[in-house]
Design goal:
By secondary structure, the chain is an alpha/beta fold. The protein contains 13 helices and 10 strands. It is about 40% helix and about 20% strand.
């Protein structure tokens, strides 16, 4: 790891203790990756860490990435740019830029250059020719895909596993599949790894995870559960938001209803249904993304 790009990676596991879990005879610990850094936290730091090191190896001095207007990844890249003094650029899905949007305001304050494109152009974000043209426009930039998932991202997620106490089950929210793939790569074959898909019709992510992780192709100790999306990406029911607030109030565990809240809510339901045998040790990874609450408030959704 390049010594320039380090943050204090605390290793806090919060034990959730109550009668319900005692009766079910399961241990539930939450890996509080949301506390890694005030601004670049959770899986966004894990994914960025080795991308930044690789950027340095290639002698690139800028970072370019993609995202929607409320993206956690855009927020984290902008914060990393400020923290490590790197010029950052973001291709933002338009068609226009809302200057009052809290995520974009923050990105600008960090010195990120925002380049708005229409949805048709944004759809080309994985197209090789389009990426080559962008590289021509930004010759000093290292390009990271939307959401930050690539082979360098996996290294950081894999590293997370090595810091955990003994466990039988490891659970994470799944958007692009990068965190899940990294956890599979870092885990022993006798650990069960469960991804909770946060978007609708997410079965295609099984193939993505196998593409990213060679272990995922060979092993059957992991699964992606696709029935807990609560309406689709960015959507959530009043019951889920109520659950998030209760977890914050009762256990001082802040959750947002897009990623970590969906995972914890799903986990709660699975425990209720006796999905986990008595005596199971479960660790749930809080992947951060709490800045998303500002966006939900801004849109009047919470």
């Amino acid at each position: 790891m390049h010594q320039l790009f380090t943050i204090n990676e605390n290793n806090l596991i919060q034990h959730i203790d109550n009668e319900f879990l005692k009766n079910k005879k399961v241990y539930l610990g939450v890996k509080r990756d949301d506390l890694l850094h005030p601004l670049i936290s959770g899986n966004k730091w894990r994914k960025l860490k080795y991308n930044l090191a690789h950027m340095k190896e290639l002698n690139k001095t800028e970072l370019l990435t993609f995202g929607g207007a409320f993206s956690n990844h855009i927020h984290a890249c902008a914060a990393a740019g400020k923290e490590f003094n790197i010029q950052t650029h973001a291709i933002i899905r338009g068609p226009e830029l809302d200057s009052n949007n809290p995520t974009l305001q923050f990105a600008k304050q960090c010195g990120m250059q925002l380049h708005v494109v229409n949805r048709i152009e944004y759809k080309q974000r994985y197209d090789q020719r389009y990426l080559e043209a962008l590289q021509g426009r930004f010759p000093n930039a290292f390009i990271i895909p939307e959401g930050g998932t690539n082979e360098h991202a996996l290294l950081g997620c894999k590293e997370l596993v090595h810091s955990l106490p003994e466990h039988d089950y490891l659970v994470c929210p799944t958007g692009s599949g990068g965190t899940l793939a990294g956890l599979i790569e870092g885990s022993e074959a006798n650990t069960h790894i469960i991804g909770i898909a946060v978007l609708k019709q997410a079965q295609y992510l099984n193939a993505e995870v196998k593409k990213l992780s060679s272990k995922a192709k060979k092993q059957d100790n992991w699964q992606l559960l696709t029935d807990f999306h609560d309406g689709g990406y960015g959507k959530f029911s009043p019951a889920l938001w109520q659950f998030c607030q209760e977890m914050n109030h009762t256990y001082n565990l802040p959750l947002e209803p897009i990623y970590s809240g969906k995972m914890m809510y799903a986990l709660w339901k699975l425990i209720e249904q006796d999905y986990f045998p008595p005596g199971s040790k479960i660790i749930a990874v809080h992947t951060g993304g709490l800045q998303g609450l500002n966006g939900l408030k801004y849109r009047g959704l919470i």
